[in-house]
Amino acid sequence: MRIGELARATGTSVETIRYYEREGIIPAADRADNNYRDYSPEHLATLTFVRRARGLGFSMAQVRALLALSADADTPCADVDRMVQSQIEEVDRRIGDLEAMRAQLSGMLAACGGRRIGDCGVVESLANRPPAN
Amino acid sequence: MRIGELARATGTSVETIRYYEREGIIPAADRADNNYRDYSPEHLATLTFVRRARGLGFSMAQVRALLALSADADTPCADVDRMVQSQIEEVDRRIGDLEAMRAQLSGMLAACGGRRIGDCGVVESLANRPPAN
DNA sequence: CTTGACCCTGTAGTTGCTACAGGGTGCATA
DNA sequence: TATGCACCCTGTAGCAACTACAGGGTCAAG
């Protein structure tokens, strides 16, 4: 299949696919006579894997590691589980950060009591309040 | 005050402060005879504002807008409230995305049933499962 | 024979910093 | 007096993970 088809099949842009190839995260495609890239079902599977892992928040480096682990059926599950577990922790951390931000932002709206910012706490809450902890 | 003091006072790195000045998000400091930057309390207030807004997830462009609004005491509160409200929505969107990721990741761990990935669903769940919706 | 949808390479831009390299300043101590 | 040290300066390059061209080739349909 050609790069455009692969792009549509995986919800990836053509330029991102070429970028992944340059980065070596997916293997280089074969080339047809006209120099167009020609992808196999294995490429499709690899790219699907990459996109899903990226969508779960794994970095490119982590995706590389996951691909390496997944290449060998004898890889102990624990190796992958550890990466998944620490990604869950990272996600939880980010959720916590965002919830703290959300609370601060809601507090700003609550501080708004006037018609003009000169009469109202909304801007002061940014300028003067101690860092949220 | 000198740049290092300002940095400590605001929890910002010296290079970030210089970066903000280059970007025009904080006004350029006066210079002492030795060409060292010399900051006023107004600089401190502005930088505090900037850091807090950045910490709430506002982009540099949004921080610029907030600074412009906050410069005039007659700015209607509603103008700022709108930005805060849409930032809350953005944060909620991100929290939702992260929670979906978290659920997928937990599902991967649950799919793990073997000792080697060849016997266990943890990797297949990345390669074959349809996109999470 | 031209239009249009594809494909190619290569390079530069994005966001918000961070990290040098290579140099100057100014005070305290040996 | 020398020298160390913490601090400051400018300028440029790097990071992640793409995204967006510019400038060109390919190929089937009308």
Automatic annotation (TrEMBL), chains A, B:
It comes from the Bacteria. It comes from Pelagerythrobacter marinus. It holds the Pfam family MerR-DNA-bind. Residues 1-69 form the HTH merR-type domain. Signal peptide: none annotated. Keywords: DNA-binding, Transcription, Transcription regulation. The keyword Protein transport does not apply. InterPro entries: DNA-bd_dom_put_sf (IPR009061), MerR-type_HTH_dom (IPR000551), MerR_fam (IPR047057), Tscrpt_reg_MerR_DNA-bd (IPR015358). This is MerR family DNA-binding protein. One of its GO terms (molecular function) is DNA binding.
